Amino acid sequence: MTPSPTLLKYARQNTPRYTSYPTAPHFHAGIDGDVWAEWLGALGAEAAGSLYLHIPWCREMCWYCGCSTRATQRAEPVATYAGTLLKEIDLVADRFAGRPRISHIHFGGGTPTILTEEQFSAVMQRLRQRFDVSETAEIAIEIDPRIFTTSLADHLAYLGFNRASLGVQTFDAAVQTKINRIQPVEAVAGCVTALRDAGISNLSFDLLYGLPGQTLESCRETVATALELQPDRFSVFGYAHVPHMKRHQKLIHDDELPGAEARIEQAMAIADAVQAAGYSPIGIDHYARASDDMTRQAASGTMRRNFQGYTTDQASFLIGLGASAISQTPEGYAQNTPDVASWSRAIESGHLATARGVRQGGEDRIRGEIIERLMCDLEVDPDAIAAQFGGSIEWPELDDLIADGVITRQGCRISIADDHRMLARVVAARFDTYLQANVEARHSVSV
What we know:
Blueprint: H1 5-11, H2 33-41, E1 48-55, E2 57-58, E3 70-71, H3 76-93, E4 101-109, H4 117-130, E5 132-143, H5 150-158, E6 163-169, H6 173-178, H7 185-198, E7 202-209, H8 216-228, E8 233-238, H9 260-276, E9 280-282, E10 286-288, H10 293-300, E11 304-306, E12 309-311, E13 317-321, E14 326-329, E15 332-336, H11 340-348, E16 354-359, H12 362-377, E17 379-380, H13 382-388, H14 399-403, E18 407-410, E19 413-416, H15 424-429, H16 437-440
Parallel strand pairs: 1-4, 1-13, 2-3, 4-5, 5-6, 6-7, 7-8
Antiparallel strand pairs: 8-10, 9-10, 11-12, 14-15, 15-16, 17-19, 18-19
């Protein structure tokens, strides 16, 4: 299973993950709380959307982590944060003309399950008071199996949670030591059993490749063990080593990281194993059972991509709550300050904590849709997309990608070759007019 020269040629390129367009490095301070309040007010009383709640706390730091989070062993900071989150829910809801309909709620982090049962109850009660949460809403949560309990599983089910994503990463004990995440198989299996017994049966596992000391064989063994637990979905990500941005990653030694060829081999091995077990490939890094909603939407070309990655969420807006959370409306993107203290001061003083963002222009919407379809469907007709928006775009140079077999072109439709699906970010980047050489280094390698 040796990567082709083409994969090696392009996989080393640094590209955005394209969970937004324009991407986060182009957010700026011109989008503040006043602008965000305007955008919220423009959504209208009948607006239908989704909510994301960011919990930026963990019991300890995993050294590979690229999320906006911090470690604490104390209950007080988490309790204070949860109380301020209730106030932010009110502040945001007050900007709407009515009670917007909500079809998806996602708790991310950090470790959302660091909240107590009482804190979860308070937050969910406030959300249902201030928003019209659908009885069929998907309510999802990210879980650290190491601090999960049967009691919490039962309580989450009682509150309406129906989907969970488990941070598995790797079952290789030696690699776990190198990334400061000791997590026995028994902890994950116990978490799975508790969730299913409580009635939360829609489960996803996160796996990582490219970790320090990780090998092809350890990746295969991790997948084999994970398959025994039969999750509905897999999310498979390459470790992004950015110690200049995440200081705790300096505890991971560069010389222990797999090289580019080894990373690709690991990604291919995981992909082969989960597909052999009957999971369908979704976009560039997700896999789902044939019966899963994500597989059906991928087949119909209606799957979406946002800051949580691939999603079945069809809502017209996404409201981010909590420090660093990002929101999206038809006007553009708005992000809360990542500093918990600054976020808290703003909310406690009755102000929205928006620190930066970007407004989407007409061409941004066209290019954003082209990029999203490439990332989700692996094919797109750029001119047809532009026509839908009543505009046009200048095509980028694609001849090298065609010559190398990364994409094919028939008329105005371009398609990414199935054996090069992991290079979708490279293809998408050709349509990104904001991507400049001085920004490129901020992004991770494509594979």
